[in-house]
Design a protein that fits this description.
211 residues, single chain, metal ion binding, 8 helices, five-stranded mixed sheet, alpha+beta, protease, UPF0758, 5 strands
């Protein structure tokens, strides 16, 4: 990871410094530690999502930091989840993408999850249905549809991540999406989108014209 630029990351340094000032004993160097974390991970968001072992190495084992930052990340994710539950999810694309990137962008294993929506595109549930290796996750259409029927969902948003690389869909991703879309149609369900999340952002099949 390259060192952060002075202008773009001033706010990140300030945010992390303020948090570190609250959780570390007096007499330390919160700003210096914040800059070290940003040099290693790049952004404040990446710091919050960092692996505990990697984070511990950068902060030299300061347990307060290693414990507190993941808790703050989880609190932020729960806040975003609450917000996307409050209305039509399809009309809140930016909020949805921000939520999915917060949840998945730094995961080291590939996972497949589904957002189940009612007929008004309100979120019923967000569930992980499969988790695999660093570059492959088995997807079982029967399990997806069974869960949708049990939850009385009308619409689905498929989501998976590409750990450590770009979020562009592969041929396999496109084929799998079309298969799920066909099965869903037979059952009276609608696949509204498939979002792929990577370290470089996220790709929406709907916005890319693939659905």
């Amino acid at each position: 990871m390259t060192a952060p630029s002075a202008d773009a990351d001033a706010d990140d340094v300030g945010l992390l410094s303020a948090i570190l000032t609250l959780i570390l004993p007096s007499g330390g160097d919160p700003a210096g530690l914040a800059r070290a974390m940003l040099t290693r991970f790049g952004t404040a968001g990446a710091v919050f999502a960092a692996d505990a072992d990697e984070l511990s190495a950068v902060v030299e084992g300061r347990i307060q930091v290693v414990v507190t930052l993941p808790l703050l990340r989880e609190a932020a994710i729960r806040l975003m989840r609450t917000r996307i539950r409050q209305g039509n999810l399809l009309a809140s694309h930016d909020a949805l993408m921000a939520y999915l990137q917060a949840v998945l962008a730094r995961d080291t294993l590939e996972q497949f999850r589904v957002l189940f929506l009612d007929r008004n595109a309100r979120l019923i549930a967000d569930e992980v249905l499969a988790q695999g290796t660093i570059d492959q996750t088995p997807v079982y259409p029967r399990e997806v549809m069974r869960r949708a029927i049990r939850l009385k969902a009308s619409e689905l948003i498929l989501v998976h991540n590409h750990p450590g690389w770009n979020p562009m869909p592969s041929r396999e991703d496109i084929a799998m999406t079309r298969r799920l879309e066909q099965i869903a149609t037979v059952l009276g369900l609608t696949v509204r989108d498939h979002v792929i999340v990577g370290n470089g952002g996220a790709t929406s099949f709907r916005q890319a014209g693939l659905l």
